[in-house]
Specification:
Helix 1 runs parallel beside helix 2, helix 1 packs across helix 8 and helix 3 runs parallel beside helix 4. Helix content is 47%, strand content 14%. It is an alpha/beta fold and 244 residues long.
């Protein structure tokens, strides 16, 4: 793992849902570029496992237990990050979940639970980390969306709505805070093989049919998303330019 002189050398990077899957891949990618990674996850042991993997490879990381659906939990984690690692300059809103259900089977409780994690959690991240970024005159929000935001999937109404909402939130952050030097983007993963999605790929026939729709004819892995998540420009506007 290359950690000195990397693209993100010394920058504090926060990743929600960093305890496994795509989130773990993003954490590892950020660390390879020299980022100081704050691994957030509702499962403390999973977060610590990711952080331990980074440290074992020579990187710098620390685990933080956090339920992003709770503003109080998120704010506690944010305060702990700032006091131990410093001000966060990069926030990757990756945490999310999918519980398939047809529209007529979707209860309001199901709907609210999915939006609270997949969308509201990302909004709360702006409340927690946005003020310090704006004060510094630079910062990056990266939101992990989904192709489901643009292509409706049966039994995924709440999930699709939450990911479409991520697009609107990201655009609003960019429009309102862009003059302050803040960038906000969405990465839309396609077919990515993780523990969460593994049940969909156990059917070999389904796997072949799905891969036939992908230009590369293969299912992606978390590292593919990680690369898209931290490949931002090498230069950042100074505070004076950002606020001019």
């Amino acid at each position: 793992m290359s950690v000195s002189g990397g693209l993100l050398a010394g920058r504090v990077a926060v990743v929600t849902g960093g305890g496994g899957g795509i989130g773990r891949g993003i954490c590892m990618g950020l660390a390879r570029e020299g980022g100081v990674v704050a691994v957030l996850d509702i499962e403390p042991a999973s977060a610590e496992e990711t952080a331990g993997m980074i440290r074992a490879a020579g990187g710098e990381a620390r685990a933080f237990a956090c339920n992003i659906a709770s503003e109080a939990s998120f704010r506690l984690a944010g305060a702990a990050i700032e006091s131990t690692l410093g001000v966060a300059g990069i926030v990757v809103n990756n945490a999310g979940f999918l519980k398939p259900a047809a529209l007529e089977e979707t209860t309001l409780e199901h709907w609210n639970a999915m939006l609270s994690v997949n969308l509201t959690g990302a909004f709360v991240s702006t409340l927690v980390f946005g003020p310090a970024m704006r004060e510094a005159g630079r910062g990056v929000f990266v939101h992990i969306g989904s192709i489901a935001a643009n292509f409706a999937q049966t039994r995924g109404g709440a999930y699709s709505a939450s990911k479409a909402g991520i697009c609107g939130l990201s655009s609003t952050i960019a429009a309102e805070w862009g003059p302050d030097g803040i960038r906000s983007n969405v990465v839309h993963p396609g077919l990515i093989r993780t523990a969460l999605s593994e049940p969909f790929y156990r059917d070999e026939d389904l796997l072949r049919r799905r891969e036939a729709t992908v230009a590369s004819r293969r299912t992606g892995v978390p590292a593919d998303v990680a690369g898209a998540s931290y490949s931002w420009p090498r230069t950042f506007p100074p505070t004076s330019m950002a606020r001019s």
